[in-house]
Prior knowledge:
The complex is a heterodimer. By secondary structure, chain A is an alpha/beta fold. Chain A is built from 10 helices and 10 strands. Chain A has a 6-stranded mixed beta sheet, sandwiched between helices. A 4-stranded antiparallel beta sheet of chain A has the order 2-1-4-5, covered by helices on one side. In chain A, a hairpin with a 2-residue loop joins strand 1 and strand 2 (37-47). In chain A, helix 4 (115-125) crosses helix 5, helix 4 (115-125) runs parallel beside helix 6 (159-171) and helix 5 (133-143) packs across helix 6 (159-171). The longest helix of chain B has 25 residues, at 157-181. Chain B is elongated. The interface between A and B is large, with 37 and 35 residues.
Amino acid sequence: MRRRYGMRKGISAALLAPTTYAWAIRAVELRVRAGRRLAVDGLDLSMGNGVHGLLGPNGAGKTTLMRALATVSRPAGGVLELLGHPVHARPDLRTLRRSIGYLPQEFGFYGRFTVREFVEYLAWLKEVPAADIPDAVQRALERVSLAERGDSRMKTLSGGMVRRAGIAQAIVNDPEILLLDEPTVGLDPEQRLAFRSLLRELGEHTCVVVSTHLVEDVVAACTNVVLMDAGRLVFHGGPADLVGLGREGVGDSSAERGYTELLRRHRAAGERTA
Amino acid sequence: MNAHIPVRALGRYAAGDPGIAPDVLWAIETHLEQCADCRSRLADASDGDTMALLAAVWVKVDAAMSAAEPATVRRRWMPARSARWVTPVLVPWLVTTVLVVLVALGFDLAVADRGAAPPSLVVLLAPVAPLLGVATAWTRRLDPAHELVVATARAGLGMVLRRTLVVLVVVIPVLAVAGWMVGASPARWLMPCLAFTACALALGKVVGLPRAAWGLALLWATVVVGPSIVTARLPVLLTEAALPGWAALTVVVALVLLPRRSGYAEFR
């Protein structure tokens, strides 16, 4: 008995093409509005491949920045380049969006859809070639360990599972920029560990930006820490630097102490110049 | 392509013979990578134990596959694939539109029975009938998945037009039947209907689709529907004389809209 298998899929020309940009994400003096308020106000930031943890107090402009990076909000000023596309100059967003994965902080879905249908629908919206959709969806569901619930309806899922379905749709198109806004909300400790290892794996070939409130998530899974306050960049460095700053300040862990210390120094400097 | 790998060499390669010279090994593997025939011959060249093992594995795989239950196929009134054309959110609004047209039709028929002849409600409402659906076609407030959809490659005029087309495909036949029952010629309401839809899409780019649709509907209600009910006369805008005007408006709006279609990628 002998069975023949189809040839392995070829490697696309796009994968082999050399990159023509230095940073996956480059922002210079970036300003973005949330409603009438300038929630991101003069942000300078360059990010390449790796996992970038975006930290900051409530109202720091994290979600607004994520929405601008996802090309949902248009920058009000400054420069924003994603994968070499100048987003501030309103280019053809269609090509760029195929290479972006985005998990919004709050997202809805149609309750009647099964998990698989939900991810398939998003894969179609992201213009994943029709022939690749079933494979891509299965792979994405397996990566967030949701494959066995693929045929459950979205409305029967727990909060953590919905979040994982959201992560699955974000990675289904193998994005080059992956934006996850508060992805660990609702995940139990075991799932958080699995998610961190998924992040590390994704960060090897992707520019992953994770916005979170949880300092320990950033220290455990991120290669870079980006700290924002009031729409501006406070700190950009490695998690070790954050921990190293934690000798003083308020908090339970040295990373948390580093976080509060950085914010305190930044605000003190702001008051001095004001 | 040069000669294929001899059977003996294939057999030694399959058995993992350490005596094969490195350059020969390299040549065999390079050839195997390119030659499907030799790869399939390689499968046959494996020794008896390997073949027996493979056969046993296949028996188990076959058993597991036939034991697995086939996926249950749920019958549903709206398959998930239809989301590519219409969101589930749109459906109740389309039903409402159809009901409104039917109520207007019932009113017209009741009035006609009594012998009075005020302007037909169906004809008055027909131009703005699709706007209820169009307003719901691209809206953050009503569509829970909107935040996900607007960040995808397909977001933009294409998706909006798909959903608008579904609205028109549902609304126009209902209007056609209602219009025929009250004896109004289709051209009288169809052209304004298309013109309003096109205007809503064009204005929607500036102020958002729901706001544009509601604004136009309100404008029509105050400027045309209200006065014509009060005066009991059919407005000039809905007579045959106004048809070229509506057609010209539709064409102009379409011509303005199409070159700007890439801007709809940032449509909220």
